[in-house]
Amino acid sequence: MQVTPLIWIITIAVTILFFVYEFFAHVRKPHEPSIGESARWSAFYIGLALVFGAGIGVVSGWTYGGEYFAGYLTEKALSVDNLFVFLIVMTGFAVPKKYQQKVLMVGIIIALILRGGFIAIGATLIENFSWVFYIFGALLLFLAYRQAFGGHDANPADGKFMKLVRRVLPVTPDYHRDRLTVKLDGKRFVTPMMLTIIAIGFVDLIFAVDSIPAIYGLTSEAYIVFTANAFALMGLRQLFFLIGGLLERLVYLAQGLAVILAFIGVKLVFHALHVNELPFINGGQPLLWVPEIPIWFSLLFIGATILVATVASLAKTRGGTGGGHAVTGNVDARAGEDSDTPAGAR
């Protein structure tokens, strides 16, 4: 796949412009988005992602198009999983609903920046060290196990990292609108809004660790990795408000993602064996008899797994809420809707 520096520059510039527009058009003025607004923009971004993928297929071939769609599906599913943790963080800090858009927007931008860095590092490693596929594969298998059995019971707002942040930074007990810092009695304090954004950024860093190896298991093209991640993150803010309480009903999403990560982990190990250069494995020679899993099968497998996990979740929680994802407190963070006192900012 031939991607010139000009195409990279245009792609990154357009991505930045989209987020700048999002901020000034929707986020700058605090408000709670309506279902209609969230639905329209979610449909727009998903449609845009599909059109872009079709464009890759037409211009560069459907092998690359298939890689893009498999990567986009995987990253979108992982991004929805991010929303569970974002919800827990904002509930823990009792972020008023009219300010949640800003928190989500900043969190998504941080995620894109972190993933961009990981993408560059991953591309360099893959280009120079074929054995890195073994590491990526083993990492994904470990993360698949943790995804399946770890759950989201812990609240990042009360984790060791945030306790350290609270000891280092002077924090006000109250929100001051959507300001990140405030000066009181001549001393500068950070607000609970700043703590929430720090917690979201930390969560983004953790999620980037499984996100990037996962998509590099589906494509070696850095351009596809970047654009699939960018489109997966676009519209994530609107999706949060659109599906709302449905998040609690996706009780099998963690298990579905675990299956996907394990599948990609196995795929990476197979690929590592197929291009093996390690001297202590088969004398440093590739194991050509090891099968390479085709992208069409990967795409079908990922799509089917997401579909089964979603249908099974909705069937299990029909008429009530399941218990697969524990969320501390009220999922709508109503504790902070009419009050500026953050329950989680201790």
General description of the model:
There is one protein chain. The protein is mostly helical and 346 residues long. It is built from twelve helices and two strands, in the order ααααααββαααααα. The chain has a two-stranded antiparallel sheet. A hairpin with a 2-residue loop joins strand 1 and strand 2. Helix 1 runs antiparallel to helix 4. The longest helix is centred in the first third of the chain and has 32 residues. The radius of gyration is 21 Å and the shape is globular. The N and C termini lie far apart (51 Å). The C terminus is likely disordered.
* Physical arrangement of strands within the biggest beta sheet: 1-2
Number of β-strand runs: 2
Can you write the helix and strand succession as a string? HHHHHHEEHHHHHH
Number of helices: 12
What is the rounded Rg? 21 Å
- Tell me roughly what share of residues is in helical segments: 55-70%
Largest sheet report: 2 strands, antiparallel
Structural class: mainly alpha
Contiguous runs where pLDDT drops below 50 for at least 5 residues: 321-346
Global geometry: globular
Name the beta content range.
under 5%
Rounded mean pLDDT is: 80
Compute the separation of the termini in Å. 51 Å
Sum up the structure in keywords:
346 residues, mainly alpha, two-stranded antiparallel sheet, globular
What is this structure's SSE topology?
Layout: H1 5-27, H2 35-60, H3 62-92, H4 97-128, H5 132-150, H6 160-168, E1 181-184, E2 187-190, H7 192-216, H8 222-233, H9 236-243, H10 246-249, H11 253-274, H12 295-316
Antiparallel strand pairs: 1-2
Helix pairs in contact: 1-4, 2-3, 2-9, 3-7, 3-8, 3-11, 3-12, 4-7, 4-8, 5-11, 6-7, 11-12
